[in-house]
Amino acid sequence: MLVLITYDVSTLTNAGQKRLRKVSKICQRYGQRVQNSVFECVVDTTQFAQLKVELSEVINESTDSLRFYQLGKNYKNKVWHIGAKPSIDIEGTLLF
């Protein structure tokens, strides 16, 4: 399933800046960054549960915000892209 993750982490303190880096690194392990604080992740149910646990352990719920949008398995007709940064087929062949 495709999950869209957005986050807003308060960076007014050094601890907040550290949380922001941790949130970004966790999201990068599961998907691709499509905007500064937005990731697209193709995960199964178990991975999604683990991702939510990992992120909830990092954020400060009184100052930070996480949003998860489940677009499901048939997401290809639910996502449109216009503008810079062309879309990448996140389930396509990965070339190094």
Name a few traits of the molecule.
96 residues
Give your account of this protein's structure.
Belongs to the CRISPR-associated endoribonuclease Cas2 protein family. Its EC number is 3.1.-.-. Keywords: Antiviral defense, Endonuclease, Hydrolase, Magnesium, Metal-binding, Nuclease. By secondary structure, the chain is an alpha+beta fold. Helix content is 32%, strand content 26%. It is built from two helices and four strands. The chain has helices spanning 14-30, 45-58; strands at 2-8, 31-35, 38-42, 65-72. A four-stranded antiparallel beta sheet has the order 2-3-1-4, covered by helices on one side. A hairpin with a 2-residue loop joins strand 2 (31-35) and strand 3. It starts with a strand and ends in a 24-residue tail after the last strand. The mean pLDDT is 87.
- How far is it from the N-terminal to the C-terminal residue, by CA? 25 Å
* Fraction of helical residues: 25-40%
- What's the gyration radius in Å? 14 Å
Structural class: alpha+beta
Sketch the topology as an H/E string, one letter per element. Answer: EHEEHE
Low-confidence stretches: none
Quaternary class: single chain
Count the E strands: 4
Taking all residues together, what is the mean pLDDT?
Answer: 87
What composes the largest sheet?
4 strands, antiparallel
Strand order of the largest sheet: 2-3-1-4
Number of helices: 2
**Can you tell me the overall shape?**
globular
Estimate the strand proportion. 25-35%
Protein name: CRISPR-associated endoribonuclease Cas2
Family: Belongs to the CRISPR-associated endoribonuclease Cas2 protein family.
Keywords: Antiviral defense, Endonuclease, Hydrolase, Magnesium, Metal-binding, Nuclease
Subunit structure: Homodimer, forms a heterotetramer with a Cas1 homodimer.
